[in-house]
Amino acid sequence: MLLNCYQQEFLEAGCDEAGRGCLAGPVFAAAVILPKDFYLEGLNDSKQLSHKQREDLRPIIEKEALAWAVASVDHEEIDQINILNASFLAMHRAIQKLATQPQYLVIDGNRFKAYPQIPHSCIIKGDGKYLNIAAASILAKTHRDQFMSNLHTDFPHYNWAQNKGYPTVAHRKAVIEIGLSPFHRKTFNVSDPQLELFLKNA
Q1: How far is CA 143 from CA 26, 104, 173, in A?
Q2: Predicted TM-score of the model (pTM)
Q3: I want to staple 16 with a disulfide (CB 3.0 to 4.6 A). Which of 108, 119, 148, 160 is the partner?
């Protein structure tokens, strides 16, 4: 069972990102402050949930959280500063947007660039341990999925409505055959030499 938060002394926000491993589109991040007594049946790491489960949980989190915010860093910024720094920047932007500023941050993962004047802890697989990080993972994922599905209308060849920009074999093959869209990350190796092996085994 997931714990509500990492520590009890300070007002805490959980932070997570989505889209770090994608070939196209922004990286999104969310920051969420939950009430101390918050509990939501089924709330877990977004990767452990179905699309429908995430979509069902999102409005409840947004309604019941003390504060929440979602922010992004686009593909051009990712190419300029690299995806790791872009992930940190997206989290910083989400924290900055919170209506209530937290006194402590818990970050999913093992690295983070310190946010000014707010202490933090990095929690490996934190989205499967703490409800506030799990909530952030769901908001980041669902908001990004919605963004990529909207882009799909103008760029249907890449099937972003389904793959959301992740490097599926079909997505890589489309890039090789059609070329990059304006939303692809140019510093990412889209035409991976492993693609041929994937296609043989597909």
Answers
A1: 11, 24, 26
A2: 0.92
A3: 108
Cite the annotated binding site by residue number.
Answer: 16-17, 108
- Span 148-159, pLDDT tens digits: 999 999 999 999
Binding residues for a divalent metal cation: 16-17, 108
Pick the CATH number of 12-151 from 3.30.310.50, 1.10.287.3510, 3.30.420.10, 3.30.565.10: 3.30.420.10
Q: What is the pLDDT of residues 89-138, one digit of tens each?
A: 999 999 999 999 999 999 999 999 999 999 999 999 999 999 999 999 99
CA–CA separation, 184 vs 181, rounded Å? 6
Closest listed residue to residue 62, CA positions, set 47, 45, 43: 43
